[in-house]
Amino acid sequence: MKYRTFALIFSCVVSLPTWADTVLLKNGDRMTGTVDSISGGRLLLNTDYAGHVPIKLDAIAELETEAEFDVFSAAGRVNGRFAVTGGEQQLISDRTPEPIDLTLVKTAGQSNLALTRLAPEWSSRADLAAKFENGNADTEQYSALVESILKRENVQHSVSLLISNEKAEEETTKDEFDLDYLYKRFLTEKWYASGNAEYFEDTLKDVDSRITLGAGIGYQFWDDSFGSLSTDIGVSYVQEDIDGEDETNPAVRWGLEYKRFLFSKKMEAFHRQSVLFIPDSDRGEVLESSSGVRYALNDRIDATARVDVNHETEPAPGNSKTDVTYNLGVGIKF
Fold first, then answer.
1. pLDDT class for 12, splitting at 50, 70, 90?
2. What pLDDT shows up at residue 116?
3. 8 Å CB contact between 70 and 108
4. pLDDT confidence of residue 136
5. C-beta separation of 69 from 79 below 8 A
6. 215: pLDDT strictly greater than 90
7. By mean pLDDT, which of 13-22, 72-81, 309-318 is the weakest?
8. Residues with Cβ within 8 Å of residue 257, at least 6 apart in sequence
């Protein structure tokens, strides 16, 4: 009896309908999936069977969605879900349903701000690059940037790891290790309290270790289907082992994160940086940044071009102020 009851419950759960957005094309084809966004005269439909599928707006006869979108058209900005009533395409919001011409929609996207999300989100990726040269000089170079973001209700956890190593004629010419953690707790839709921790090593520049702990306040300018922009500022405690000498200093930290999707999410531009303003005249400022573009080859793999910069206004004696690394490689989403 127990097993029959379990089987009945399981069959009911399995038979529940799977809600999906529907796109009816003018040629009569019907496509289902999840509408991601609209831009550049195209709708981007996320499907289980073909990944991200761009569809021209002028090829769509009817569009129905479960979620609401921020829709920008010549008539202005409206928030609502797409629906068809009485054979007419409409946008349904808190107000009276309004007819809408899909071909006049400039952009439509969903907000990803913490206080508007209904379900947890977890995303991770790794950018890998390597170069090997044989000839007059043997050179080996590789770098790895791993990022993971967990969003839950009004909280976001971000972890990033950057490893960069280079050898020329069996001699190490670059050896960097940078592990970062950023915590955001949203107090309103856009304002958040932040916390950060970082462990950094660059033994070739005599930075045997740098540990940074801090807290502050931040602002999320936007976070939607097309990208995100946020910044935070706060106070930090910095402990460094430089050329065998321990130093402890207070500091002001400023961070910036930017991401923008282009060409129906085939391309992504990104920039992430942090600046430590250390009042000690012997240390000055420390800037770390990663900037670049990614081009999607499929839903899991993309080609990446990235520039990593590490700059210190007062480095250890005998070291250059700026260290720049150029990376070409592949990115993997998981």
1. very low
2. 65
3. yes
4. 58
5. yes
6. yes
7. 13-22
8. 228, 229, 230, 231, 271, 272
Mean pLDDT for the stretch of residues 240-253: 92
What is the 3-class SS of the chain, one letter each residue?
CHHHHHHHHHHHHHCCCCCCEEEEECCCCEEEEEEEEEECCEEEEEECCCEEEEEEHHHEEEEECCCCEEEEECCEEEEEEEEEECCEEEEECCCCCEECCHHHEEEEECECCHHHCCCCEEEEEEEEEEEEECCCCCEEEEEEEEEEEEEECCEEEEEEEEEEEEEECCEEEEEEEEEEEEEEEECCCCEEEEEEEEEEEEHHHCEEEEEEEEEEEEEEEEEECCEEEEEEEEEEEEEEEECCEEEEEEEEEEEEEEEEEECCCCEEEEEEEEEEEECCCCCEEEEEEEEEEEEECCCCEEEEEEEEEEEECCCCCCCCCEEEEEEEEEEEEC
CB-facing half-sphere around the CA of 103: CA atoms within 13 A: 4
CATH 2.40.160.40 fits 121-333, yes or no: yes
Q: How many CB atoms lie within 10 A of CB 12?
A: 9
Residue 9 has pLDDT above 70, yes or no: no
% of the chain beyond a pLDDT of 70: 91
Higher pLDDT, 33 or 140: 33
Q: Tell me the two tokens of residue 115.
A: 């206080």
Q: Are 37 and 71 in contact (CB under 8 A)?
A: no
C-alpha distance across the termini of the chain, in Å: 42
Residue range(s) occupied by CATH 2.40.160.40 in the chain: 121-333
Rounded to 5 degrees, φ, ψ at 114 are -55, -40
Q: Would the pLDDT of 194 be above 80?
A: yes
CA atoms within 13 Å, Cβ hemisphere of 202: 22
124-145 pLDDT, tens digit per residue, is 999 999 877 666 557 788 999 9
Residues 53 and 47 sit within 8 Å (Cβ to Cβ): yes
How sure is the predictor about 278, in pLDDT bands with cuts at 50, 70 and 90? very high
